[in-house]
Prior knowledge:
The structure holds 2 protein chains of 2 kinds. By secondary structure, chain A is mostly helical. Chain A has 5 helices and no strands. In chain A, about 80% of the residues lie in helices and about 0% in strands. Chain A starts with a helix and ends with a helix. Chain B folds into 2 domains: about 130 residues, Response regulator (Rossmann fold, 3-Layer(aba) Sandwich); about 100 residues, Arc Repressor Mutant, subunit A (Orthogonal Bundle). Chain B is about 45% helix and about 20% strand. In chain B, helix 2 crosses helix 6 and helix 4 packs across helix 8.
Amino acid sequence: MIDLETVNSIKIIGQLRNKKTYFTDILDLFSTQSEEVIHHLKTAIESKDQISIYRLSHKLKGGAQSIGAIELSKKCYELEDWSNSQENTTEFKKADEILDSIQSTYQTSKTMLTKLIASS
Amino acid sequence: MEEIYKKLPYTITIDDDLVVCKLIEDMLGLKTFSFSTASEVIHNKDVLNPIGIFVDVHLANQECGLDFIPELVSLWPSAPVIAMTSDTNATLISQALTAGAHDFILKPLRAEETTARLNARREELQKRNDKKQLNFGDIVYDRQYKTLSGPNGKKFISPREQEILTFFIGSNGSVIKKNDIKRHVWGSIAVSDNALDRKIFEVRKAIKSVSNNVEIKSIYSKGLILQLKNHNENKVLLDDMELKINRITI
């Protein structure tokens, strides 16, 4: 679910810069950004905007990878891949389902990352 | 205020992911100016003077970072342009490098790698920019005087032809696709095949006027290549040399 190597590399940056709450700050930034992207994804799916779905899921995927939320990045890739497929112009129900999965994985990942910080 | 920007070292990060921008700043220990689109950077070009530029492939407003790489390289020739993405697509990587990016890094970024790549590319650029002449075979392109010379004479070439020739020489004899030339020389500006063909014709004419030994050859369905006319004979000589090297016992 979480890539510990990525998490540790972020912690090391914090140590280099003498910032004790560094990972928390990064997580907060990631959370604010991700929640906004998820909100825009809902709108994009409702308006059947395949291009925006692709770009937003790609963006969220990149953000998830940057913080080590591997499972979340995989879910985002599912949506990105779906939106890239030509045949899906009318089957947006599938996109909705993937987004639900993304939201739930996001919450789980956030909880796990918060626990990781608390325990270190 | 503008003078301060020009004197202090900082980088530019073009990425709509604020986490990446923050991480780069803290990895390098250097201020990074973050932009979500390359257009914003270009818009501010007169006040910016970065020591390095990180550019994501997928940007806000549906911009493609690759399209802006040539202009970024041209605006700040001493600042390495490092493309980044989370896509492991090999085509994307080659497109970024062909567009003129000095290096490419995959996300998630790692502090040591990011710092090492920036520093290594900066050092290379400093060395390369000292080089006033580019050579290929028996032709020499003089950057300072914008002339192409060879055994048969010397010829002045226009700015676009200079860029195309420089791109060919920099390709070190590898095949270049026409779309790559368009992207490298014109960036995001749309260029017709006819317009490109006319420019390539002029470059060919210029080369022919100064040398009988160098040519731009068309490879059907693949692209173009700058090569020596006796390329095949040279290859035989080099293959022979390689065999001889391998026979040396230590």
